[in-house]
Amino acid sequence: MSAQATDPINVLVVDDSTSSRVMLRRIIESDPSLQVQAMAQDAYSAARQMKVALPDVILLDLEMPGMDGMTFLRKIMEQRPMPVVICSSLTETGSERSLEALEAGAVDVILKPSPTDEASRQEATMRICDALHAAAQSRGKGRRPQPRVTPPPLIPTPKLTADEILPPPNTLKTLPLTEPIICIGASTGGTEALREVLCALPPDAPGIVVVQHMPKGFTAAFAKRLDSLAAIQISEARDGMSVGRGEAIIAAGDTHMLLRRANNGYRVQVVDGPSVSRHRPSVDVLFRSGATAAGRNTLGIIMTGMGDDGARCLGEIKAAGGMTIAQDEASCVVYGMPREAVRMGHAMQTLPLDRIAAAIMGFARQHRQAGSGV
């Protein structure tokens, strides 16, 4: 029986480290809408726990003795699909295996916390609890999302807006026509959604900048994997990189990425700063910078993910004369960010995932026909 809106989300923690299990229990149970149903030190113990009662979400370490986490994940997805969040260490191998886990059906990946002070402890708590809430609301093969529950605020500070990083755009100023530029934002479920969209684009696709909520260190492996699959060139952001036809740049984890005008083209700026809309990188920051730097030359696309990051500043792209698209509910793993954009009236179109690549190319053709001359 699925949990009611007032019931806590039951989490099964699977990790071979006793200290990690204790730390994760403490973090999870700091949120009254989450509870640890059971803890397991390996896949076999987890399987026994699941015979007693199925959890709403599994928090899974990939590196375990005996049956490793990847094998266990594949068995779960074959036999009884349910939301799984990967808790991974920050290593090159860990990030690559985490991406394999996302392709195998995991909903999200979080960095195994090692808090060194109170601020980092609070941030790790927020990240983990948000990921578990999003996973519980996710939809996928063989599973239904839990009723929508708004998690209580875990950090006693106001949720910051894009104003913390850059001022609002002057939407009354008409910017000259340039090459079209595409700004995309995604969160939970976005890695596979982005793979579908970016790999469907031809080599002459317009320049693309992407914020995908991922931990620091994982975005480089994500960009490298997509680059090996797609016809366009895909890279992790470095400050000052230019972005043009046939190129996509993905924001690096734990930093904000802004679009900047560079003569008749565009480049990206990588900046530090506080989390905006509870995220760093933030989709709101990217979208605002797109509205400011490119205005009517911009197509903003908001895709699957929990929360509202990007929903507000998608409206700034619209107000600046650009085009805006939200992914539809049926094709989202979590219909949170697109829902908020639609609710606010900021999405000019709502499209299924398999039509977004064609919409990108259609926007580029219409924009170039309008007389960019570049």
TrEMBL record:
Its main location: cytoplasm. Gene3D superfamilies: 3.40.50.2300, Methylesterase CheB, C-terminal domain. InterPro entries: CheB-like (IPR008248), CheB_C (IPR035909), CheY-like_superfamily (IPR011006), Sig_transdc_resp-reg_Me-estase (IPR000673), Sig_transdc_resp-reg_receiver (IPR001789). It catalyses: L-glutaminyl-[protein] + H2O = L-glutamyl-[protein] + NH4(+); [protein]-L-glutamate 5-O-methyl ester + H2O = L-glutamyl-[protein] + methanol + H(+). The keyword Magnesium does not apply. Residues 135-167 are annotated as: Disordered. Phosphorylated by CheA. Phosphorylation of the N-terminal regulatory domain activates the methylesterase activity. GO terms for cellular component: cytoplasm. GO terms for molecular function: phosphorelay response regulator activity; protein-glutamate methylesterase activity; protein-glutamine glutaminase activity. Keywords: Chemotaxis, Cytoplasm, Hydrolase, Phosphoprotein. Residues 176-367 form the CheB-type methylesterase domain. The active site is at 187, 213, 309. SUPFAM superfamilies: CheY-like (SSF52172), Methylesterase CheB, C-terminal domain (SSF52738). PROSITE patterns: CHEB, RESPONSE_REGULATORY. Pfam families: CheB_methylest (PF01339), Response_reg (PF00072). Residues 10-127 form the Response regulatory domain. Its EC number is 3.1.1.61, 3.5.1.44. It is found in: Cytoplasm. GO terms for biological process: chemotaxis. The modification 4-aspartylphosphate is found at residue 61. Contains a C-terminal catalytic domain, and an N-terminal region which modulates catalytic activity. Involved in chemotaxis. Part of a chemotaxis signal transduction system that modulates chemotaxis in response to various stimuli. Catalyzes the demethylation of specific methylglutamate residues introduced into the chemoreceptors (methyl-accepting chemotaxis proteins or MCP) by CheR. Also mediates the irreversible deamidation of specific glutamine residues to glutamic acid. Belongs to the CheB family. This is Protein-glutamate methylesterase/protein-glutamine glutaminase. It comes from Gemmobacter lanyuensis.
